[in-house]
Amino acid sequence: MHQFSYKNGTLHCERVALNQIADQYGTPTFVYSRNTILNDLDEFQHAFEGVDVHIAYAVKACSNGAILRLMAQRGCGFDIVSGGELWRVIRAGGNPALCTYAGVAKTEPEIRYALSSGIYCFICESENELREIDRIAAEIGTVAPVAVRVNPNVDAHTHKYITTGTNENKFGVDISRIESLYAEIAAQMHHLRIRGIQMHIGSQLTDVTPFVMAVEKIAPIAARLKETYGIEFWSIGGGIGIIYDGCLASGEKKWWDEHPQQITIQSYAQALIPLLKPLGLRILLEPGRRLVGNAAVMLTRCVYEKKGESKLFKMIDAGMNDIIRPALYEGYHEIWPVRQHRDDLVVADIVGPICESGDFQAQNRSIPDVKPGELLAEMSAGAYGFSMSSTYNSRPLAAEVMVDGDKVTLIRRRQTLEQLVEDEILPID
Ligand code: LLP
Questions:
Q1: Where would you tag: which of 123, 131, 351, 390 has the fewest CB atoms within 10 A of its CB?
Q2: Could you give the strand order of the β-sheet that contains 16-17, starting from the edge strand earlier in sequence?
Q3: Is 109 exposed, middle or buried (0-12, 13-18, 19+ CB in 10 A)?
Q4: pLDDT of 342 over the 90 cut
Q5: What is the CA(287)–ligand 1 centre distance, in A?
Q6: Closest to 36 measured CA to CA, from 294, 335, 253, 238
């Protein structure tokens, strides 16, 4: 469970009142709860009793160096998808030897950088990519550790933009082709060392069934690859969904009563352990959202309200440039006033300052009747929140802070206008 709750009528992150953070750092600001992350990490690391499980945190979910450092200190490896993410991990003190590098379009400079950094394994997504890594490794005079991402063709039943494991998607190699590809690697690509296999079927899964189906499909292949090529690991990807709706359920009723179908770390582990244990492989997990999603809110201020012909609008000082999930994936985030309200719900659209109709954080939402000047917290903003933000409409990137008990640490300064344009070059007339 996350650690955002009302105390004496004010929303707190752990023991810090959110209005204090707004006073000190302004809005919009992402506020992370360190202990929420640590508790969930602990649960992951202990749920797979009897299986050699390692966490490779999916950096793309939230790549702030302070978060990466926390993961590194707790023994995590990292699932990276670019040279930039590798650079961030190393900068934060993460161990490249615990990094798996996925992604369908790795470039030559990225491959060279990863090879020279000594990553644990490339996760290759096509035959041509394998050949390219083989060529580069030969040129350098080294051997590159590789695994192939297998596409199990299982529907994850999630939003179409974040489902990855079906034949319709660009990811991985078809299950029917995977073993012949491993045979080709072994026979022809002498600067590659086969180290494992990987899959990832999608993100924000709310049911364990697709995970079980995919693991059941791939397990016999993984066993044969171990037998034939001595692979040492199988990364089963990330994708465990979180509660976006109901995460602040009242004291008596917890979200798991209201969402009995919801996947938990425990139910995920319990369903998969019997399938994974007999393989005797190192199992990598690549959670992103489940580790950081519920662990942060985006703090924003209501600036105006407007009663339109058919709608009530509450304008806030955060836009789709700060959190793009509602616009891009029809993402739902709860929005809570920092000052607790009682019995004054209205139906409103919560919209931002960007000049686009898609710039909303909530539509037709029953929310307390917050007034201009009041603070709001957009819940579950830790994953794919800041990491997908942009400076669209020349809006500086938000600040980020981390709370630990009653301590607040600034982990990213708000961008300045100077920084916003510092890489632009004005032509000299
Ligand atoms: N491993 C691989 C290879 C991935 O592509 C991803 C996410 C993960 C792990 C982590 O998945 P997670 O545990 O976070 O579900 N921006 C979208 C989500 C995109 C996910 C991309 N890949 C959103 O805001 O919903």
A1: 390
A2: 4-7, 10-13, 16-17
A3: exposed
A4: no
A5: 8
A6: 294
Please give the structure tokens belonging to residue 220: 């016999």
Residue 253: pLDDT band with limits 50, 70, 90: very low
* CA 314 to centroid of ligand 1, rounded, Å: 31
CA nearest ligand 1 atom 24, residue: 384
Mean pLDDT of 9-20: 98
Report pLDDT for 22. 98
129 in helix, strand or coil?
A: helix
Q: Is the Cβ–Cβ distance between 351 and 359 less than 8 Å?
A: yes
Q: Do the beta carbons of residue 288 and residue 200 sit within 8 Å?
A: no
pLDDT at 112 over 90: yes
Per residue in 158-213, pLDDT (tens digit) is 777 777 767 777 889 999 999 999 999 999 999 999 999 999 999 999 899 999 99
Q: Which two tokens stand for residue 319?
A: 């836009």
Domains of the chain: 4-9+294-420 (2.40.37.10), 34-290 (3.20.20.10)
Query: What end-to-end distance do the CA atoms of the chain give, in Å?
Result: 59
* Mutation probe of ligand 1 site: the residue of 289, 290, 291 with most atoms within 8 A of C-beta: 289
Angstrom CA distances, 392 to 139, 395, 409, stand at 41, 6, 27
- 355 catalytic? Reply is yes
Distance CA 245, CA 378 (A): 11
Per-residue confidence (pLDDT) for residue 157, from 0 to 100 = 75
Q: Are the beta carbons of 381 and 297 closer than 8 angstroms? A: yes
Q: Residue 278 contacts by C-beta under 8 Å, 6 or more apart in sequence? A: none
Q: How far apart are CA 80 and CA 85, in angstroms?
A: 6
Q: Which atom of ligand 1 is nearest to the CA of 286?
A: 9
Q: Is the CB of 289 under 6 A from ligand 1?
A: yes
Distance 162 CA to ligand 1 centre (A): 7
Q: Is 288 in the pocket of ligand 1 (CB under 6 A)?
A: yes
Q: Which of 99, 247, 302, 355 is catalytic?
A: 355
| pLDDT given at position 156 | 79
Neighbours of 128 (CB within 10 A): 9
